[in-house]
Target: 2-(1,2-epoxy-1,2-dihydrophenyl)acetyl-CoA isomerase
Amino acid sequence: TVLTALADGVLTLTLNRPDKLNSFNEEMHLALRAGLQRAEEDDAVRAVLLTGAGRGFCAGQDLGDRDPRKGGPAPDLGHTLESYYNPSLRLLRSLPKPVVCAVNGVAAGAGANIAIACDIVLAARSAKFIQAFARIGLVPDAGGSWSLARILGEPRAKALAMTAEPLPAEKAAEWGLIWKAVEDDSLMDEAAALAKSLAAGPTLGLGLTKQLIQSAAVNSLDQQLDMERDCQRQAGRSADYAEGVTAFLEKRKPEFTGQ
Ligand code: LHQ
Model:
């Protein structure tokens, strides 16, 4: 349910239930989590590229999995979040390596919010982001209530979440929810090239950069300055820093090892 391929330091994870618009069943949850865990543990992985197979990126939870017409007690969706979505969200955000998301088509519900949680998000011009939750009586999850409010502010976050109105890729870029919208035909080439160039980058420094930027919203300036000091100290001891400066002085391109 998740295709996994490692090339040029990029671990590509392709959500692969295209006939269901890559909506999540248990197997796909576990496969995505396994892919992210591998990205964390395997030194050969220096960037992740997340995308979807077929015409959609991800339609959130597979709603066929819990058909209320079949009766029985109401399912505990809090348990579903804690057991399946939240571990993957935490892995995505804490992974000390860049995660590029190529949103190849519609991203709905938790699918939209998983995309938004990635570090650099490119979307096909035809893609749309839909906070579909309100249509079925749920609330934004997979970090959406946090990221939408933080990135967009309350007015846009509330309107998107309460109306479930589709947000086209270009508008999402205009609003700063994603990095950019690109032509459908060039999405995968562009996203793969970006992931490849990040994978050839100073991985340790990029990982620290990610943590710094993610910490900014909860830190005071003083705390953030302290954190920059500590991260820069660490980056300054890396082989990639020495290589970066050497390459600059020698007027050549650096060859980073990620160390
Ligand atoms: C689907 C789905 C789907 C199953 C398309 N499930 N089959 C967390 C905790 C626990 C539980 C609940 O949820 C959550 C988080 C969530 O993610 S809640 C939000 C769940 N997602 C949605 O509400 C979105 C449902 N899907 C849609 O609204 C539409 O499919 C969108 C707007 C994404 C795309 O519309 P279209 O382009 O018109 O495609 P379609 O609706 O025709 O879908 C194509 C096929 O995919 C279709 O199957 P079929 O056999 O008829 O061809 C759909 O039934 C299936 N599909 N999403 N979430």
Remarks:
- The chain has two domains: 2-199, 203-249.
